[in-house]
Amino acid sequence: MGVDDEREPKPSALPLAFNSVFDPSNPIGFIESAFNFASRMGADIFDDDTPDDKMENKILSLLEDIKKRKREKKEESSSSSEDAEKKRLRTPEADDPLPPNKNNGLDMENYSWSQTLGDITVKVPVPFGTKTKLVICDIKNKSLRVGVKGQPLLIDGELFAAVKVSESCWTLEDHETVSILLPKCKQWEWWKSLVKGDPGIDTGRCLPGVRRLDGLGYEAERHMRKLLFDYGQKCKGLPTSEDCPEVLQKFIADHPYLNLPRSK
């Protein structure tokens, strides 16, 4: 009886099912489950004549697919972050004018510029020891090109407004800085930028200077300085000499050397 029991066929096992679910946070665990399942199933999961290394190729292909999905997900997340950053950082010239420097201009990466109501001054650093003959400074009515021969141009673009070419000039200071003077065609107009497309400044915060008033004559000079004072007050949203004469009187007391006329 014992012998007969041994000869009785054992019931065949039910087909195995692969129930593992891919978890992006644990791809290695999924691979291990796939290996275990393949080892239990043997060669039945492949064709009868499939080489042993084909199982490895399938697993590697699966692993590569997992890496690809993770890479795509990371790129999608990075792209979303870049879009959000672009929305946060708007173009300064169009939306958020920058405050001007102390000379009513702006300090850029390759140069700095300043202005009065009459002219523009540009300072362009160049490699120390640069000779004048190597400097490129092409001044035109509405464009400016500055650089050193054999190197990329430091300024190359359309000017914010027209300049007087015949009165413009440039010099090389200490063999390391190109200094350029550009008289404006339209006097009494503040420039937002030196070159179109560069970040712009808030011209409402520019302060008119008192340069080049010596040759106007005594009375004209005093009157012009008063106009400049009132203009500066208006730009800052403060009362002018007409609105509040005491303001001008205090300013005269603090700055007697400016020779301002007293209000009547």
From TrEMBL:
Keyword line: Cytoplasm
Residue numbers spanned by region Disordered: 68-108
PROSITE patterns membership: CS
Compositional bias of kind Basic and acidic residues: 73-93
Gene3D superfamilies, A to Z: 2.60.40.790
Domain CS: 106-195
Localization: Cytoplasm
Primary localization class, coarse: cytoplasm
Protein name in the entry: CS domain-containing protein
Organism in which the protein naturally occurs: Hibiscus sabdariffa
